[in-house]
Amino acid sequence: MAPTLEKVSSNKHYQGTLTKYKFRSAALGDLDAQFNLFLPANAAQGKVPVLVYLAGLTCTEDNGAQKGGFVRDASAEGIAILFPDTSPRGANIEGEDVDWDFGSGAGFYLNATSPKWSKHYNMLDHVTQELPQVIEAAGIPIDFSRQSIFGHSMGGHGALTLYLTSLISGVKQYRSCSAFSPICEPSAVPWGTKAFAGYLAGGVDEGKENHDASVLVGRVKGGVNVLIDYGTADNFLFQLHPEVFLKAARDAGHDEVQVRVRSQEGYDHSYYFISTFASDHVHFHANFLKA
Amino acid sequence: MAPTLEKVSSNKHYQGTLTKYKFRSAALGDLDAQFNLFLPANAAQGKVPVLVYLAGLTCTEDNGAQKGGFVRDASAEGIAILFPDTSPRGANIEGEDVDWDFGSGAGFYLNATSPKWSKHYNMLDHVTQELPQVIEAAGIPIDFSRQSIFGHSMGGHGALTLYLTSLISGVKQYRSCSAFSPICEPSAVPWGTKAFAGYLAGGVDEGKENHDASVLVGRVKGGVNVLIDYGTADNFLFQLHPEVFLKAARDAGHDEVQVRVRSQEGYDHSYYFISTFASDHVHFHANFLKA
Lengths: 291, 291
Prior knowledge:
Two copies of one chain form a homodimer. With 291 residues, chain A is of the alpha/beta class.
């Protein structure tokens, strides 16, 4: 039986509704989980497509909803946006709240295999399986067969890896993927290696094999729809490696129509950068979600 | 001599730049004051008009910049936006940090006349005099002869009273004024009477005489350009009294072209409401700023 969704808050926003929900998450080991969901006004007339936004380190389900600048165009296009949290909360695992780039606020959108973390840190299942099931079971008018995904930084890593993994497995859960300043090669940078070493029984090797976008993109048979933006003034560029992902994509035969990686002069890692290109990303996805 | 502006941070945003500045404020009794300033890209070619955004209770210079949704259209129109703070900070006045609706974060955009507060709580001078002087002295390319003002809640009260006062005095500092869910009759509601009783030597009577938009609008000779939006689901409607302002404006002969008060079905007091109508407000002001 699906868990009950509790409405935490609800705000009318761009003619639709932004609602924060809470429920008891099985995927996260029986912890309360929250998410925001924007439903456009046209959802009253029937099911709408959905765009999943994965936020970055230290964020919650609120950052994208409040600062992303996505909803104006999503409303105009008649597309819902689902904003999950970035990790389980309150798992009470030793060390969970010590660092800002590991544990709480830093779930990395994988299923942990290290025994210490594997009961709770399963954001991959939470985002790809549990949230769609819980939302459908609640009768909320979203058509999850028309789903795309995007994200920022750690959430860009999540968007890329969840998208590519679902293509490789043949599930094709998402029609398109985009990212702002994503961690493109986590197995080779400090944020990613720390996460993989901590969450995965097989450490960085397991992460490189299963959760590294620059590796996964080489395994996709068939076309992909990927848009990436990053800023040239991003202080965290050394954590991102967009050029590695781009080379891996080109080497795998994905051309500039399938994979666009745009370098944006002078922009940084902040939501001021994200919101500037928010409209581009929403319309990119709308092309596929409404096709 | 004008104080030195220190750059706290700077982010490229919608082709322009959002910069946070700090300086030693004389108007606020020799305290550090911060503000955000968005400069559109076209400021590189010459001075640009400016829209001043006054935020509400508990806010800082960041809320409007991060959540308002104003910059996309301001950038397209080539208009700067100035985001002041909502009160002095760190004045160390007894009682300053006790309540969320008085003292820090609640300066009410007036000059205090009560001896306890009058050294520091002078947000009216800070916004109307000091910030333009400091910004001009720093050589930042803003044309303060093309200035308009808007705000939210307490900041809507500020926008209306600063605009109307400058019209009554003949200074005509602002070309147009708009507000989201403004406190329209502060001398008759809890937020306003608490502020007036505290900051003003003459208490609520002095506030009603000098700082109440529903009184001031009756004293303006000539035309006004005012747009107000409020939501019908606003839990704070009892603090706002938009209908009182509307009646006072009509009684004073200001027709629906001069004063538009729009009731927005189902919207509340939040930035989700503000951002929904942000574009309307920026374009309303652009009509006057670029005339």
